[in-house]
Design goal:
Length: 338
């Protein structure tokens, strides 16, 4: 689905509103959401077109607006300067399922929790294999080919993995996932050789252009997954593969794994292989122009011609919630992305 609106200060894809310019203000007028700059009204959008809102730093909204958003069950996610979520607002309607939350927490030390940790890792590695195959299908590379074989071996080991001890099982699964990640990024470095400087994956604090772009793309994806998890009533901080550090959005990172390669890695690697060079500011951060370019790349993947990936993410979150209360078995997406 194409963007309904696409302007310098905001855009809408599917039913998600994203505002990025500091100084904007959100308020309501009758059944419409109002975007204004100081006293000047820039746009009015009917509430029925919106299911979620993402706000960058420096944007304000009124308490009347928050009340309306709560009543209409519209989530708000607040993101920092690089697009990484740091907070959210959600109405009480999504917080009423005590049974679901109890089941989610209980699953951590049960076979369900081990199963989820394993299938999240499997989904990520399977997509890593597919992406490397995609980039080498017309240009075979011996080094990348060797890494693909190694990733398949790790994947086979995971698929046959069995353990009843939750803590040791999770540690083993993380070990396999970590090893796969290291050699996958070695393959990416090979794919970008002579096209961009990339010496390995760096998360927070990255100063090179490739990692900065990956981080920004992932931040967009985190926001989508976070909203989907909140909407079905799950705790975004209680994951199964990623660690439970305070403030760590473990379940968001878990569910994101099956979407990283098809939605972000493919777009970022492809654009760098075409020798695109992003603009960086004096502190080594992506410029506004470069952020918009990455946003467009990810948005293009989120708005596929025949289906909405945003809705697929929502469906996966719903499937995960159902799994906790014994309404089916959770299965990562195995859609053909390439």
């Amino acid at each position: 689905m194409k963007a309904l609106y696409d302007k310098a200060f905001y855009f809408i894809y599917d039913t998600s509103l994203v505002l990025s310019r500091p100084g904007l203000r959100l308020s309501k007028h009758e059944k419409r959401l109002v975007i204004s700059d100081k006293e000047k009204c820039l746009e009015e959008i009917p509430f029925f077109r919106i299911t979620s809102i993402t706000l960058s730093k420096g944007i304000s909204l009124t308490t009347d607006m928050l009340m309306s958003l709560s009543e209409k069950e519209i989530e708000v996610v607040f993101v920092d300067g690089i697009g990484r979520p740091f907070g959210s607002f959600i109405g009480t309607a999504h917080m009423r399922s005590a049974r679901l939350r109890r089941a989610q927490y209980a699953a951590f030390n049960l076979s369900k929790g081990i199963y989820l940790a394993r299938v999240f890792a499997e989904a990520k590695i399977r997509n890593q294999v597919k992406l490397l195959q995609y980039f080498t299908r017309n240009e075979p590379d011996e080094e990348v080919g060797t890494i693909i074989i190694q990733l398949k071996e790790i994947l086979e080991t995971l698929e046959n993995f069995a353990s009843d001890a939750a803590e040791s099982a999770r540690s083993s699964i993380m070990g396999y996932e970590g090893h796969a990640a290291r050699i996958y990024w070695n393959a990416v470095s090979r794919l970008l050789e002579d096209k961009a400087e990339f010496n390995g994956r760096t998360g927070r604090g990255a100063i090179d252009s490739v990692n900065s772009c990956l981080n920004y793309g992932y931040a967009i994806l985190y926001g989508e997954v976070w909203r989907a998890i909140l909407r079905v009533g799950l705790d975004p901080y209680a994951g199964f593969l990623h660690s439970d550090r305070d403030g760590n959005l473990s379940l968001v990172y878990d569910l994101t794994e099956e979407f990283r390669q098809p939605l972000v890695d493919r777009a970022i690697i492809s654009t760098f292989r075409r020798k695109w060079k992003p603009e960086l500011d004096s502190e080594g951060r992506l410029s506004i122009v470069s952020r918009k370019h990455i946003l467009d790349l990810v948005k293009e993947n989120l708005d596929r011609e025949n289906y909405s990936v945003t809705r697929l993410i929502a469906a996966q979150a719903k499937s995960l919630a159902d799994y906790f209360i014994d309404k089916g078995v959770y299965q990562p997406l195995k859609r053909r992305w390439w």
